[in-house]
Amino acid sequence: MSSAGRALPDVGLVVAARQGDQRALDDVVAASLPLVYNIVGRALRGHADVDDVVQETLVRVIRYLPALNDPAAYRSWLVAITIRQVRDWETRRRVALNRDAGLDAIHNVPDPASDFAGMTILRLGLTDQRREVAEATRWLDPDDQELLSLWWLEETGEITRNEVADALGLSPGHVAVRIHRMKEQIQSARGVVRALRARPGCPDLGAVSAEWDGTPSSLWRKRLARHVRDCAFCGRLGTSLLPIDRLLAGMPLLPLPAGLGAHLPSAAAPAAAVQAVAPPSPTAGPAAGPTPQGAVPTDAGGGPSVVDLAVNRPRGLVPSLAAGVAAAVLAITMAVVILPDEPSAPSWAAPPSAAPTAVAAPSIAPSPSARPSSKAPVAPAVSSARKGVGVWNFAGASQALANSRASWYYTWGTQHPGISTPRGATFVPMIRSAENVTAAELARAKAAGPYLLTFNEPDLPEQANMTVERALDLWPQLMATGSKLGSPAVAWGGPDPQGWLDRFMTGAQARGHRVDFITLHWFGADFTTATAVAQLRQYLQAVYQRYRKPIWLTEFALIRFAGGGSQFPSQQQQAAFLTAATAMLGQLPYLQRYAWFGLPATDKDRSGLFSDGTEATVVGRAFQAAR
C-alpha cells in the first residue's frame, strides 16, 4: 500500500492553505518537503545545488497554491512543479558548462556529503542486493536520473504511475518503455558493481578497467558491462540477482538531513508568521506554463512576492533568492526568515565592540578531561553546507562555533572534548597520524562518520610525518570503517608529478585502495586579495584536473611562513581575502567543502575568527557572512 497518502497533506488541509490559513500552509509545505527532497536529490545525484532547487520548488508551491484548481490533485501538481525545477536547473547547468568549457570543462560532481546513493545505503541501512542497486544508480545516463527519481518513489509506494506520467508530460505507455530501458541499464550496472567488488577479482576485468578513474559513468558502464556479459567468470556472479522491483518495494523515503528536519514546525509550535502574497491570476500558475528559468515570482508591482517575514519582526518582503539572501534552506522554504537590516557595508567591516580578550594558547589536541556541555548551543542559521572551520578548544569555543554559522567542523581527531556541536552543524572525525590507527580510534571514527579525514600533512616532520608507503599500508584499516575517505592532506604540492600526494594516489590505484575525495591545505603568502584568490583557484584547478575527484579544502588562510615564524596580513586584508575566496569557492562545483584556519583568535593565531565565545574578529564577521 502506498504511504503517500500518509506522507502528504489531505485535501482539507490543502483547501485551508489555499484560503489563507497560515498554520495549514506551514503544514502543507512541511509535509511536502520529504517528497520534494527525494525527487530533487536523486535527480541531481547529490549535487551541491540540491538545497537550492528544493527551496525554489517550495517557494513556487507557496506562490501558486492559491491558483490550484483541484486540491485533490495536489500531489501530482507538486511532483510536476518539482520536475520542472529540476529541468530548469539542468538547463542552467548546461548553459554554464558551455560558457565555462574553456576554463575547466567541469561536469556535474556530486557532493560526498549529499550523494543520494551513499545516503540511501547509510540512512536506510541497506544490505547486500539493495545496496548494490543503490550503488548501480550512480552509473546511469544523466537523462535517466530524473526518471529514476520518480520511478524509485513509485516502487517504494510514494507516488503512482499516472503521477509519474503527468510529471514527465508523457503517456503511461511511453513512461513504461522508458522505465524498462532504465531498469536494463541498472541491471547491467549491478553486474558491474558486483564484478568490481569480487574478491578475488577477474584479472581480465582489471585490464579492461585499467584506465578507469574510479568515477561511475554511463560510458564506463557500457564498457565494463560488455566485458561482464561476455566473461564466464564475471557472468556467473550475476546469476543470483533478484528483480529490482522486489528489492525496492516497501522502502521508505530517504530521511531528511538533520539540518532540514530540525526546522520543521511541530504541532505545538505557534502559527508561523508567514504570509503568501496576493495569489496570481489562474493563468499565471504552473498550468499555464513554466516560470522563467531561475526567476522568483513577483507581485504586480515587480517586487519579490514569495515570502513574508516573520517572527517578531515587522512584515516585509524577503529579497530575491538570486541575491543570495537566504542562508538556511528551511527558513526560506517555510517562509520564515529572520534577517538583519540590509547594511550599507559588509557586516565584517563594522568595528569590534571591545578589544579582543586574551585566551590561553590553543592546543591541536584538546584535553581529554574536558567535558562537553550536555546542551548544544543555539546557533544562527548556517550560511552554506560547504562552510566549515578547524576548531581547537579555548574559552567559549562551543558558543563561538555556534556563532560562526559553520555547518561542519573538525578537531584533528576523532572526538571533540569540551566542544558541543551546534544544532544544524556536524562533526567530521580525522585519523591524524599513524599512531592514531588503533582499534579504539577507528571505532570512534566509524561512529562519528560517515566521512573521515586522514593523515594531517604527512609531508611535514612536525605533523603526521609519514612516508607514502606507510600511509598506503595503513589505508585498508581506514577503508574497513566504511566511511567515505578523504586523501591525506598534504601541506603543499598537491598537483606536482611525483609529489607526496601524486605518489600516494598512484599507489592507491595500483593497490585497489578507495579514495573518495581529495583533501588539501593552502596558505597564501601574497596578501593582495585578487592575487591570492587567483593563486588559490589555480591550485585547486590543477589538483582537480590531475585527480578528477571532489575536493575538500580543510585549511586555508593568508599566512606567510618565513624564518621559522609566521607573518599575518592585517585583519582587514584577511577579511577581504576570506570574502573574495569563499565567493570564488562557491563557483567551483568540484569544491565540496572548505574549512577556515581556524576558529580561535589569539596573538599567535591571528587568522582566527573569535577571541571568545561571542567576540568575533573582523575576520570572524567576514566568515559569518560568507557562503
Automatic annotation (TrEMBL):
Question: What InterPro entries does the entry give?
Answer: ASL1, Asl1_glyco_hydro_catalytic, GH, RNA_pol_sigma-70_dom, RNA_pol_sigma70_ECF_CS, RNA_pol_sigma70_r2, RNA_pol_sigma_r2, RNA_pol_sigma_r3/r4-like
Q: Which domain of life is it from?
A: Bacteria
Keywords noted in UniProt: DNA-binding, Sigma factor, Transcription, Transcription regulation
What Pfam family is a match for this entry?
Sigma70_r2
Q: Does the record bear DNA-binding in its keywords?
A: yes
Please report the stretch or stretches of sequence annotated as the RNA polymerase sigma-70 region domain: 29-93
The UniProt record lists the Asl1-like glycosyl hydrolase catalytic domain at: 401-623
Q: What is this protein called?
A: RNA polymerase sigma factor
What organism does this protein naturally occur in? Micromonospora trifolii
Q: What is the lineage of its organism?
A: Bacteria, Bacillati, Actinomycetota, Actinomycetes, Micromonosporales
